[in-house]
Amino acid sequence: MLRISNHYVSKIAFFLVFVEVLVLLGSAYAGAAVRFLDLGGGTAHSLDDFFMSALVFALAVSFSMSAMGMYQLNFDEGLRNPFFLKLMPSFAIGFMILTLVFYVVPALQLGRGVLFLVFLIAGTGIFAARMIFFKTSELRFLESRILFVGTGALAKECGDLAMQNTAYHRYDIVGFVDTEADECCIPASNIIRVREGDSLARLASSHNVAEIVVSVQNRRTGFPINELLDCKLQGIKVIDAATFFERETNQIRVDSLQPSWLVFGGGFDQSFVRTFIKRTFDLVCSGLILLATFPVMMLTAVLIWLEDRGTIFYQQERVGCDGRQFNVLKFRSMRSDAEQGGQPQWAAQNDPRVTVVGNFIRKTRIDELPQILNVFKGEMSFVGPRPERPYFVDQLIGIVPYYNVRHSIKPGITGWAQVRYGYGSSADDALRKLQYDLYYVKNNSLFLDLLILIDTLKVVLIRSGR
Q1: CA 173 vs CA 149, 197, 216, 225: distances in Å
Q2: Residue 87: domain span
Q3: For position 184, which CATH number holds?
Q4: Average pLDDT score over the chain
Q5: Which of 123, 184, 389, 465 is the most exposed place for a label (fewest CB within 10 A)?
Q6: Residues 379 and 399 grouped into a single domain
C-alpha cells in the first residue's frame, strides 16, 4: 500500500491509474496525428502545443472512470461484462465534461473527427492495458509474504482479512507464530513455532517474510518485543493489528483498539493550514454545486409540494463540531406525520415512511443539497462525518466506544462512512459507521476529500445503494 496524505492507497490501483492516464494521453496524440494526417497537415492545433488538450482529455476520462467505480478492482471478475458496461458510460460522462470544458475554454477544443478517433483509440488501449494488467496480477511476484505473531481471535481475524481482501493487495500467509499469550484459534497446521536457540528474525528471513503483523491481544506475558525489534533492524516491516486493519479496510476498529494507539499515532491534523484549505474547499465546492444543481433543486421543490401539498423543506436538530447543536436543512423525503409521537426513529434503507419523490431524491442524494446553506453558514463542511440527532447521540456515546471523537471536526453533507457503508438503522450500524468516521477524522486531507467526492458521484450514478 502507498500512503498519500495519510490515506492508504493500493499500489495496484495507483499503478493502473498511472498507466491508463498515459494510455489516454497517447490516444489523444495518436488520434490527432491520424486526423491531421488525413487533412494534409491543415489544423488549428499543432502537435507541439497539443499537450494541454491531451491532458484535459486524459483527466476528464480518468475522472469519469473513477466515478463509475472502474478502479475498485475485482480480480475474479476480470474483463467480463461489467468492464464494458462501465467503460461506455465513463466515456459518455467524459465527453460531457469535455464539452463543458471546451465551451468555457475554446482554445482547448478538439474537432469532432479528432475526438471520435481519440475515444476509439482510447477504448482499445484501455482494454489492452487491463487485459495485460489482470494477466500480470496472477503472477506470484505481486504477492507479499506476511507473518502473523499471535494465534488468538485477533490473529484469526487478521488472517481472514488478509485472505479475503484480494482486490487491492495479495498476500501469501507464511503462518502464525504462537506466543501462548492468547487462547489458540488457529489450526495447528498453520502455526509456526520458533525452535529453541533460534530467533524470530532468522525464522522470518528463512521464509522470505516482507512484513510481520503483531496480532496479540494480551501483551503482558510472553510478548517478544526484543525479537520484533531485531526483525525491524533487519529491514522487515513490523506493524500492529490496528494499523493492519486501518490499512486494509480504511477504517479504525474500535473493539480491539488501544487508546495509546490513537494518542501516539499520526494523523488528527487540526492545524491552521488544514482548516483554511478545508474551508476554502467547502466554499468552492458548495458554490459550484449550487450553481450546477439549482434547476434540479427547483424542480425537486415543485415535485415535493405536488405530491402531498406538504412542506418542501425539513429542519432537524443535529449535533455538530464540539457537540454544538444546529438545525440541518434538507428536502423533505418522508410523510409529514413520520414521527407522530415525537419519538425519534432510525432512518432505514427501505423506510416505509418515505414518499415516492422522497425515495428517488434519497437514492440520488438530492435531498441533501439544501445543506449547502449549512456549509455557507459554517455549521457543516462539504465532506465529514454525517451529523446525528441529539437523541441518538446521547444513547450512542454510552454504548459505542470513542463515539464522541467524530465531533472533533465539522460534520459533512457526504462522508467516508456514507460512501462506504450507507444508511444505519441501529446501534450496531452506528458502530460500523463510526469506524469509517474515525478513519476520516484521523486521516482527513484534501486528497481524501476529493476521493470521497468521486465516490459520492459514483453512488449517485450507479445507484450502489450506499
Answers
A1: 12, 24, 17, 21
A2: 2-137
A3: 3.40.50.720
A4: 86
A5: 465
A6: yes
